[in-house]
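Open question from group meeting: does this chain pack into something compact, or does most of it stay loose? Before anyone orders reagents, we agreed to write out a predicted structure and look at it together. Recording both the input and the output here so the notebook holds the full record.
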Amino acid sequence: MIDLHCHSTFSDGSLTPEQLADEAVKAGLSALALTDHDTTAGLPRFLAAAAGKSFRAVPGVELSVDCSSGVMHMLGYWMDVENPELVRQMAWIRDGREMRNRAMFEKLNALGFAMTWDEIVAFAGEDVVGRPHFAQVMLQKGYAKDKNEAFDKWLGDGKPGYADRPRLTAEVAVALIRQAGGVAVLAHPFSLRIGKEAMAALFVELAGVGLAGVECYYSEHSADLTKDCLAMAKKANLVPTGGSDFHGEVTPGVRLGLGFGGLNVPDEALAQLEARRG
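Structure tokens returned:
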């Protein structure tokens, strides 16, 4: 059993890279990828902690990508984390996130949500502040009963507390990952909020610019969507990959390797993905 999508305290997860390595052993995983949002800063600690343990540590990242509807993220694996263009573009994304965070902070306080910047940063851990950290403060103060309510009412796209930020295009994200020696995978297709026909066309389009795989197995994918994604990935000659998108306490129902309980990413997905390197 493998898991190619999880987050540490270097983005919006609650566990450190070292704790994730320990959890991978407890979960009986044969491979785990750390894919923090728009940063590779936690990878050295993750790889060091995994050395000598019973699973293979895969270095990764999850890049924010612009799209016309829903949310698009691009996963990258095995990149050269010192690649100058990758470093520059991730810094640009993080700078944009910082400006967005400050705008959201001002909006939420104007809406009557009494919170301080220090309270938000306290939930962010090692690195990038994100919307889940705003949601955690809202939960702590009783402004929302759970993360979904916080996003559905206040923090989601188009909601009163939302502010936009700059993102890469999908084509640029794929090219960036490939130029850094990695392979690119489209994350959680359900979040695109598009129909099957449009999704199939997107898979083919992105495969044409170098996309290697698509995250067919995912915690929030239904059995029908998983089946559809597998068929569309095969038609587009993309590797079907998968992961839990584990964040720890931020999403308490999601378990490493198992998602909500039924996730089972085939081990062979990793070998198939690695064959696309270079």
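Observations to bring back to the group:
Residues 84-110 form the longest helix (27 residues).
The chain has two domains: 2-89+181-274, 92-155.
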